[in-house]
Amino acid sequence: MPLGRCTAGIAVFGLLISPASLPAQNGSAKSARTITAVRASEKVILDGVLNDRVWETALPATEFTQRDPDEGKPATERTELRVAYDDFNIYFGVRLFDTEPQKIVRQLSRRDNYADADTFTIQISPYHDRLTGAVFEVSAAGVQRDAIVSNDVFTDYSWEGVWESSVQVDELGWSLEVRVPFSQLRFPRAEHQVWGINAARFIHRKNESVWLQLVPKTENGLASRMDDLAGIDGIEAHKHLDLMPYVVGRSEFVEPSSRNNPFNDGSRFFGSTGLDIKYGISSNFTLDATVNPDFGQVEVDPAVVNLSAFETFFPEKRPFFLEGANIFNNFGRGGSNNFWGFNRQEPNLFYSRRIGRQPQRTAEGDFVDSPTATTILGAGKLTGKTRSSWTFGLVEAVTGREYAKTLQADQRLRVEVEPLTNYFVGRVLKEKNRGGFGFLATGVQRDLSLPALRDLLPGSAYVAGGDGYFYLDSDKEWVVTGKLAGSWMKGNAAAIDQLERSSQHYFQRPDARHVRLHPGATSMQGWTGSVNLNRQRGNVTFNASLWGTSPGFEANDVGFQTGGDIAGTHAVVLYRKPNPDRWTRSRYAWAAKWTTWNFARQIQGNGWNGEAGFTTMNYWSFWFNGGGNWRGQDDRLTRGGPAAIGLAGGFLNLGGYSDSRKKISLNYYYGQGSNRAGGWNKQGNVGMNLKPSSSFTISTGPSVNRSRGIAQYVQSVTDTTAVHTYGNRYVFADIDQFQVSMTTRVNWTLSPRMSLQVFAQPLISVGDYWDFKEFARPKTFSFSRYGYDIGSISASANASPGEKRQYTVDPDGGGPGVPFTFDDPDFNLKSLRINAIFRWEWKLGSTLYFVWTENREDKSNPGQFSTRDIGRLFTAHANDIFLVRLAYWFTR
Fold first, then answer.
1. Exposed e or buried b for every residue in 424-447, given b needs 16+ CB within 10 A?
2. Spatial separation of the C-alpha atoms in residues 780 and 647, rounded to whole Å
3. What backbone torsions phi and psi does residue 621 show, to the nearest 5 degrees?
4. Which helix (H) or strand (E) holds 75?
5. What is the DSSP letter of 19?
6. What 3-state class would DSSP assign to 16?
7. How does pLDDT run across 612-660, given as a tens digit for each residue?
8. From the CA atom positions of the chain, what is the Rg in Å?
9. Cα 173 to Cα 77, 96, 169, distances in angstroms
10. How far apart are CA 227 and CA 225, in angstroms?
11. Do 701 and 742 meet the contact criterion of CB atoms below 8 Å apart?
12. Residue 297: pLDDT over 80
């Protein structure tokens, strides 16, 4: 069957599936009911015992229904939920009866981490808009976790609210009291409030989850599935102010690059102060601000070896940027509960790690002392929602000038490596039951007083766009979601020329007629967009997408983008049966077809994927997937040179995991792939999770990757005699790569407010380049090997310790071609990263951190792996950082 007809067939199959054709669903949602909150006439003592007078007058909600393991059946244990409030707080009193209280699981965990224990979760939606809400979860050990709900189904656990809870375990089971200040919530101004509410209980030993308002597993929705919470009358929005000043002490013990390094004698000491501010302008608008923030308590990023033309994406971990991130990150993602991606290269328009990034200019000298991050002088964030369902978000941040100190020939200099920069991000979104629309705008403005920085960076960069979604039916079964955004960059000619030549654009491609360099240009423009169709209810769901990013679109100044001049489409059908049968508890399978092309309509990728998985009756899960792609074109292989053939290939992966509730649980993965030229890769890992006590957990396991690449890019060389490749020689090599790592996490939770978290990652990555060659002709996958097919190649001998040998290539054996040299690209990275964080919330909202970070690195014996590398992981010189951070929370 032709590929285009196959894609259309899958799409038609998905569109023809109707609710009537599906099996009847077990455990359909109950109709919404009303739960009434009562006003407390006296202070509620938060001790976990429901003996306050208000709990005697509050009517309990008791009709909980199983979601797992037997959807739709009554709960096996009784649960009672009561709600109360006063002028400043909302309270929840919960009695969780248990016929075997001695078996209640009370595993401790760090705050905001998944609690592997019995838990109770409260979901509330003060706006009751069927789209947004807040989640408060407490375990039987008293550990808290909270989250923000957006787009009805997306749950963001990065939010860290200030609220209190207390737990008691007795002969009847366990009981829970929760107090949430109104200052932590956003709600409309009204005399009589009607909020949304839902709740869920998890009984660990039975793997049983029960819901107050059941959401069937073949359905979706959180905020839209809530009951009514009435009776909250006469509360007023009180302006509140939270101040969190902090002090930081930091010491660094870093090996100097040389004994004569004037900027580093092996140790440094720093101290700083800062302030975080949260101001509740009204019940529905909050201003967050930070002055001279310090994020030393954040876990370090893992070590990676990246041989691609693009940077590595690391997730945001800094609390200031995490809170409210869902407002900005949902651009183009409204309505739909799933966005499948198959070689999908859509840019992220707001990547908050750009703020405070490492300086972008490299200083040169015999000795250089350059900062590792840009100082955030100050940042502010305004977020909220109006009574008419408009959501607003605004971020403004200023980073300071950064200077590197250099020493060159006894001359000391202070070199600017990052300019004074202002970042702006604005988001607005209007949502109603059948749809929504919104806008997002970002802006970066730099004060480029230094000519070298004007040649490196654009002076201004702007992105603006709109998004929207619409439900095609009143049941919200089918939804169309889309977005469209444009970018505009402005700078001097050198900066724009560098952008046009970057890996996101490659305007210099000599055989690409649809793009070209623009000498002297001082601006660049482009667009990106997508449209998605999703069926998101029932046993059979469907998703299709059409997306594209033009050659000139650029978002990396405050976003994250790895590609341009690319478009694609896909269609995927998913079958799922989440309820038990004779052999399994649940099972699923999906199949997809995808295609990508550039803006010259040349196919860049054309393939298929499929996966199936199931969970056994003893809660072991298994899955496997595979896929393949046909031959296409690759206009990125030569990194700005002529296009090559994209090889056909395929892959197969399988994995699984055991019952995570056990003291010891396992997970595993194995995958392999290959292409028609003989390239291949194999990778696998085995993980083990240990719970030796109720306060101690360990997760560890090895990961191994072995691969052979047939065309690993090395460099390009200008040579007018290389007429077949437009005056440049594109040098490649085969590469054998081996990598092994063992990421380990240890969590010791002394109490719900005191914990020690340790992260350790030993990694060895070795790459051996061989069979050096050059790209022979455009639109092929042909190479000419140096020393065999053309010319000659030789390597320098006896390189001094710490220096790499050099290769010298005569491309045509004494002919007119220009000889050139390049460093041996072999590598052998041995890295050990350790990060230990002790956290103590010594007072509500106030924290003390002790942090130790160690980094050992060795690069000896490039291209060669042996058992000696394991020893050098631990004998390499250690760079250590010690940090103490004390923050105190004031509120009024």
1. ebbbbbebeeebbbbbbbbbbbbe
2. 10
3. -120, 145
4. none
5. G
6. helix
7. 999 999 999 999 999 999 999 999 999 999 999 999 999 999 999 999 9
8. 29
9. 10, 6, 6
10. 7
11. yes
12. no
**Please, what is the Cα angle at 771 between 766 and 777, to 5 degrees?**
120
CA atoms within 13 A on the CB side of 295: 20
CB 11 within 8 A of CB 544: yes
Helix ranges (H only) for 832-876 are 868-875
768, 746, 743: which is closest to 757 by C-alpha?
746
Tokens at 810, concatenated: 């005569």
Model confidence band, residue 25 (pLDDT cutoffs 50, 70, 90): very low
Alpha carbons 503 and 522: distance in angstroms, whole number? 19
Beta pairing class for 34-36 and 227-233: parallel
Whether the Cβ atoms of residue 274 and residue 291 lie closer than 8 Å to each other? yes
Cβ–Cβ < 8 Å for 155, 141: no
What's the CATH number of domain 32-236, 3.40.225.10, 2.160.20.80, 2.60.40.1190, 3.40.50.720?
2.60.40.1190
pLDDT at 283: 66
Specify which residues 676 forms β-bridges with: none
Task: Give me the torsion for CA of 554, 559, 565, 566, rounded to 10°.
Answer: -160
Nearest Cα to Cα of residue 312 among 37, 560, 112:
560
Query: Which two tokens mark 312?
Result: 């590595």
The token pair at 452 is 């070298």
Residue 260 CB coordination number (10 Å): 9
Residue with tokens 């491309």: 811
Residues 240 and 202 sit within 8 Å (Cβ to Cβ):
no
**C-alpha closest to that of 557 among 462, 428, 690:** 462
Burial 851-862 (b: 16+ CB within 10 A, else e): bebbbbbbeebb
Length reported for the chain: 892
Question: Which residue, among 209, 163, 220, 244, has the nearest Cα to 844 in the 3D structure?
Answer: 163
Q: Before 69, cis peptide (omega within 30)?
A: yes
The separation between CA 228 and the C-alpha centre of its own chain, rounded to angstroms, equals 34
- DSSP H or E stretch at residue 307: none
By DSSP bridging, strand 820-823 and strand 806-810 are antiparallel
User: How far is residue 153's CA from residue 130's CA, in Å, rounded to a whole number?
Assistant: 10
CA distance 211 to 216: 10
CA 418 to chain CA centroid, nearest Å? 26
For residues 818 and 542, what is the distance between their CA atoms, to the nearest angstrom?
57
* Segment (H or E) for 320: helix 319-322
Q: Tokens 């550990």 — which residue?
A: 143
**Rounded-to-integer distance, Cα 650 and Cα 399, Å:** 46
Whether residue 480 contacts residue 486, with contact meaning beta carbons closer than 8 Å, is answered with no
Angle at 389 between CA 181 and CA 196, to 5 degrees: 50
Q: Could you say which DSSP state residue 648 is in? A: P
Beta bridge partners of 71: none
**Integer Cα distance of 841 and 117 in angstroms:** 21
pLDDT at position 799 is 60
- The region of weakest confidence among 39-43, 189-193, 695-699, 720-724 is 189-193
Phi and psi angles of residue 869, each rounded to the nearest 5 degrees, phi first: -65, -30
